[in-house]
Design brief:
Heat Shock Protein 90; Ribosomal Protein S5, domain 2; Ribosomal Protein S8, Chain: A, domain 1; 3 domains; eight-stranded mixed sheet; five-stranded mixed sheet; 17 helices
């Protein structure tokens, strides 16, 4: 018997499923897109256990006849293309003809459908790719697909699924994205019997935009529209101060299809050059309409990526339009103070002076007000949870090794400040540079993490925090945990929360940014993390936002105080995110660079 053989159909289907069905959200995406292609204007999505046990999608679309339904669960069967020419001019969301058989091959699957012009529907039941039954049934016009026990016959795939909360989070993101691109369709999403989203038919895209992004964006989005030759671009872009810590809030649609296109994302980011801090992403919603034959949507099995015939033209059009939109109508103060990427300032926002209760003690002395430095580090107490494992670095009195491993903080003499970002010091025969933001971030982090009951400051006027439905769901579950680190938040309506108190070390004006960044991080990593992990992430975010910034001028006394406090930290060598707080250069290395080693001249 030869080595080459044709694979059985069930294995072929499972391989195809591996390309298309990554997780429950992938199933939801395929089924909802099929419902949209069928002309539905009401789509219901029922989920149980994050999609692990049940995914059910119902619609009031055109439905299928018995003959079409039987063919629809066969591989490479589709109603959406007829010829090779159709393949290069796709006008529908789905077209491959592999979604249904792929899903059915890795689940206990049933399809109930009825065409609008027939009196009887048909039900097809499939388990692991094997057809169990095909029979007539009574049903309303449209289609109902049920996917039970996803990956029940592929345990290797099933074990890679995350918790129900994480999987549901991905499903919610899919529905958000599809709903925003289809405002004329009603979507209802439920999980374990509880309604998560119920988007009614929106009167306009702007109405749906408000539902998806939440009230926080009200008045902070600018619309744009331009039609040039055979490309039409329209949408909204957030003002430069409306940013997120990832690109999740950039919604891109090409001919109605939601995509994660790097070319368009880069055009948006490049349009904001000089306006964004490092690690910040603008909020944007963009619709691009081009002739179908000028864009290839067949470059990825999940149809999430596209390729343009003239990519440079598309890039230039989008970048120019977005740049013009955010630049038009800005007030003089913003225009006069654009900031460079990574500088650490937002337009029109200047670094606040160091607060007396955060780093320095201000005392009235004869002859004027002088800063008298006070040690601000609290006495070590039992940590609320174990700090991250790092190499212990000796503190005061340690000698600098030839490779700069250790630093004697008590002996450092401040020389000055470089670029208002780095503190220059000397000790013995070494030059030491300290990153003022990273150093202060380490100080604040250790103070917060070592206090089991941090001192809080209640806000005179609670800060209102408007969220999208998905953000509200995460924050509702997160709020009780945050109280243990001094951040008190209470629900104040369906998607609105009130920030009542923050740790005493934190600038109260940073409360909203801290909470939003924490939510974004949980969306990136999965919001089912253990409590210590969530709290540690929260403390890191608070420390980062509370620390003094780059481009902030410090007095000599302020620099010296910062150095002393850093020396009292348990892990002074790195900030909570792992970046070094200081680097050292020995005299021998300096002399080597100047060519003085071995020189007989002075």
């Amino acid at each position: 018997m030869g080595c080459v053989q044709v694979l059985p159909d069930n294995l072929i289907n499972q391989i195809a499923a591996g390309e298309i069905i990554e997780r429950p959200a992938s199933v939801v995406k395929e089924l909802v897109e099929n419902a949209i292609d069928a002309g539905a204007d009401r789509i219901g999505i029922e989920i149980e256990a994050g999609g692990k046990t049940l995914i059910r999608v119902s619609d009031n679309g055109c439905g299928m006849s018995r003959e079409d339904a039987v063919l629809a669960v066969e591989r490479h069967a589709t109603s959406k293309i007829r010829s090779e020419a159709d393949l290069f001019a796709i006008h529908t969301l789905g077209f491959r003809g592999e979604a249904l058989p792929s899903i059915a091959s890795v689940s206990k699957f049933s399809l109930i459908t009825r065409a609008q012009d027939t009196d009887c529907g048909v039900e097809i039941v499939i388990e692991g790719g094997r057809v169990v039954s095909i029979q007539d049934t009574g049903s309303a016009p449209g289609t109902l697909v049920s996917v039970n026990q996803l990956f029940f016959n592929t345990p290797a795939r099933r074990k890679f699924m995350k918790t129900a909360g994480t999987e549901m989070s991905h499903i919610a993101e899919i529905i958000n994205t599809i709903a925003l691109g289809n405002p004329g369709i009603q979507f209802k999403l439920s999980h374990n019997g509880h309604v998560i989203y119920h988007f009614s038919k929106a009167g306009s895209v702007a109405d749906r935009l408000y539902e998806i992004l939440g009230p926080a964006t009200t008045g902070r989005l600018k619309s744009f529209s331009q039609e040039q030759e055979d490309a039409k671009i329209s949408g909204w872009v957030g003002e430069p101060t409306l940013t997120r810590t990832n690109g999740r809030y950039q919604f891109i649609y090409v001919n109605g299809r939601s995509v994660r296109d790097r070319l368009i994302q880069r055009a948006i980011m490049d349009a904001f050059t000089g306006w964004l801090m490092k690690g910040q992403f603008p909020v944007a919603v963009l619709w691009l309409e081009v002739p179908a034959h000028t864009v290839d949507v067949n470059v990825h099995p999940t149809k999430s990526q596209v390729k343009f015939a003239d990519s440079q033209k598309i890039y230039s059009l989008i970048k120019g339009l977005v740049a013009k939109t955010i630049g038009h109508g800005q007030d003089a103060s913003v225009e006069a103070h654009p900031f460079k990427s990574g500088i650490g300032m937002m337009p029109g926002r200047f670094p606040a002076p160091l607060q007396a209760d955060r780093l320095f003690e201000i005392r009235e002395e004869p002859g004027g007000v002088e800063k008298q430095i006070a040690a601000a580090v609290a006495e070590p107490r039992a940590a609320a949870f174990p700090p991250p494992i790092q190499q212990s670095i000796p503190g005061a009195g340690a000698e600098i090794s030839p490779d700069g491993s250790f630093i004697p903080f008590d002996d450092l003499v401040v020389i000055g400040q470089l670029h208002e970002t780095y503190i220059l010091c000397e000790t013995g025969a070494s030059l030491v540079l300290i990153d003022q933001h990273a150093a202060h971030e380490r100080i604040v982090y250790e103070r917060l993490s070592r206090s089991p009951h941090p001192e809080t400051q209640y806000l005179l006027i609670p800060q209102s925090l408007d969220c999208s439905p998905r953000e509200a769901d995460i924050l509702l579950r997160l709020a009780p945990k945050l109280q243990t680190v001094g951040l008190e938040i209470e629900p104040f309506g369906r998607t609105t929360f009130a920030v009542l108190a923050v740790p005493a070390l934190i600038d109260a004006s940073e409360a909203e940014r801290i909470v939003r960044e924490l939510i974004d991080r949980l969306l990136d990593t999965g919001n089912d993390a253990a409590e210590p992990t969530i709290l540690d992430a929260c403390i890191k975010v608070m420390a980062c936002h509370s620390a003094i910034r780059a481009n902030q001028k410090l007095s000599r006394d302020e620099m010296q105080s910062l150095i002393r406090q850093l020396g009292k930290c348990e892990f002074p060598a790195r900030c909570p995110h792992g970046r070094p707080t200081w680097i050292a250069m020995g005299q021998r290395e300096i002399e080597k660079k100047f060519g003085r080693l071995g020189s007989i001249s002075g």
